[in-house]
Automatic annotation (TrEMBL):
It is an enzyme of class 2 (transferase). It comes from Amycolatopsis antarctica. Carbamoyl phosphate binds at R55, T56, R105, H136, Q139, G264, P265. This is Aspartate carbamoyltransferase. Gene3D superfamilies: Aspartate/ornithine carbamoyltransferase. GO terms for molecular function: amino acid binding; aspartate carbamoyltransferase activity. Keywords: Pyrimidine biosynthesis, Transferase.
């Protein structure tokens, strides 16, 4: 792999290799008091976050440090961006300073792809940590890792993705990756929260959450992204919760083996009941834990792997 920009176009064998590497790294670190591997010693990883983040930013930093890379965080609020510097010039500056990999989160869809073109000559790898409403590939990979951990193979599994699909880069990345790995994806949302052209995606669509829950192996609740909404997408928070929130009563409709996921941050009481989020069926904490190992695996394949011409 040269970059990780999207799951759309990521081959099943590439995705499986990352997930298998994550499993191996997890086993290697199990029981260690000092979680430190020499794999990326001498490599420099720079993260540029133009949007707020807790889970993604922290787990990438931990992933790099656990592999002995030098990790540097660049915040837009304290960088030359505030002086008017462009994304291109910032990226070229980081590459010239010696960055082997740039991890970027940006509000503009396609920003990571543009970055990869600008940094092609420098040979700097780019990881998309979320670009606008486009994609968030490492989130989808950690979701897949968590589902494999709980369910085994994803082939033939039915996964419901529920809520604010239209604004969700997490949903888009999961649709492509889960389908590639053989799962069936069903989107459950009000019509106003489904993207245009949804019929062209490898999914089925439903507006009735209660009808879908008894037949799914996992349910992924999405965050309602109010900061991206301009206008009324649903009547009220209460109405949304009644129709599309995962309550305790709805959880009882799920099969006994079903897994509950949420990319976070959660709006407890609206998107998901606290009792459900904290139940044995919930793998929300496991998602965060697996995120570190998956991001370690991504950095390994980009900086210490065979250097192939992946996505």
């Amino acid at each position: 792999m040269r970059h990780l920009l999207a799951t759309d176009g990521l081959a099943a064998d590439e995705a499986t290799a990352i997930l298998d590497t994550a499993d191996e790294l997890k086993r290697t670190l199990l029981g260690r008091q000092v979680k430190k591997l020499p794999t990326l010693r001498g490599r420099t990883v720079v993260s540029m976050f133009y949007e707020n983040s807790t889970r993604t930013r922290v787990s990438f930093e931990i992933a790099g440090k656990w592999m002995s890379a030098d990790v540097i965080n660049v915040s837009a609020s304290s960088s030359s961006v505030n002086k008017g510097e462009s994304l291109r010039d910032t990226a070229l500056t980081l590459a010239a300073a010696g960055a082997d990999c740039v991890i970027v989160r940006h509000p503009a869809s396609g920003a990571a792809h543009r970055l990869s073109r600008w940094l092609a000559e420098a040979g700097t790898a780019v990881v998309n940590a979320g670009d606008g409403t486009h994609e968030h590939p490492t989130q989808a990979l950690l979701d897949a890792a968590t589902l494999r951990e709980r369910l085994g193979s994803l082939a033939g599994r039915r996964i419901a993705i529920v809520g604010d699909v239209v604004h969700s880069r997490v949903a888009r990345s999961n649709i492509h990756l889960l389908s590639t790995l053989g799962a069936e994806v069903v989107l459950v949302a009000p019509p106003t929260l489904l993207p245009a052209g949804v019929g062209g995606l490898p999914v089925t669509v439903s507006h009735d959450l209660d009808a879908e829950l008894p037949a799914v192996d996992a349910v992924m609740m999405l965050r309602v992204q109010a900061e991206r909404m301009h206008g009324g997408f649903f009547p009220s928070s209460r109405e949304y919760s009644i129709r599309y929130g995962l309550s305790e009563a709805r959880q009882r409709l799920l099969p006994a083996h079903a897994v509950v996921l949420h990319p976070g941050p959660m709006l407890r009481g609206m998107e998901i009941a606290s009792a459900v989020a904290d139940s044995p069926a919930s793998a929300i904490t496991a998602q965060v834990r697996n995120g570190v190992h998956v991001r370690m695996a991504v950095l390994y394949h980009l900086l210490a792997g065979d250097g192939g011409d992946g996505a």
